Amino acid sequence: MQLHNFFRSGTSHRLRIVLNLKGLAYDYVAVDLRKNEHLGAAFKALNPQGLVPALVDGDHVLTQSVAIIEWLEERYPTPALLPTDVNDRVHVRALAAIVGCDIHPVNNKRILDTLRASFGADDAAINQWCGTWIGDGFDAYEALLAADTRRTGFSFGSTATLADAYLIPQIESARRFKVDLGRWPLIMAVDANCNALEAFQKAAPMAQPDAS
User: Fold this and answer.
1) pLDDT value at position 16?
2) Which residue of 81, 85, 110, 112 has the fewest CB atoms within a 10 Å radius of its CB?
3) Angstrom distances, CA of residue 86 to CA of 90, 107, 150
């Protein structure tokens, strides 16, 4: 498998976590978003949308991190990143969706580039914009963690799940946008537990070959 991705991309980060948790080897192909390589003909031949990541598996080109992660869970079911009980599965998916649907999409590069180019947003305004949506989502995530009396150390249960693969990159992004993370002690405890695992350490942005 080839993973076409960018070290600091949250969607790329979450996919690296899942690949590592499942023990799957892949070739790392850097796509430099700072140089707009994702908008060039070579990458758009893989993904016409011009977004990272893209995963190439033989003759198959997979795009959209949510779809790729679900595909990995179906094709490589062990270790499972979703619980067996249907109600628990929807809970984990809902946690992931707080990040994947409600926080990340309004804070990604093309949105921030538009805020700068079309609305004159400076760095302070960008940080405020991102902090607003991160805070809104993390408040809900923290409340759900607090309500789950069965949870021990991670977003669900006692091992890393799909939800953690979404959460940890968003925490990394929150730090980059100077969000005060002290508001969410349960999320911070999950962050510490996840980052003690090799799969998360190897997936971290600054551990990637194109990090700078």
Assistant:
1) 98
2) 85
3) 6, 31, 16
Query: Architecture of domain 86-200 in CATH?
Result: Up-down Bundle (1.20)
Give the span between the Cα atoms of 91 and 78, in whole angstroms: 20
Q: With contact defined as beta carbons under 8 Å apart, do 98 and 156 qualify?
A: no
pLDDT for 132-143, tens place per residue? 999 999 999 999
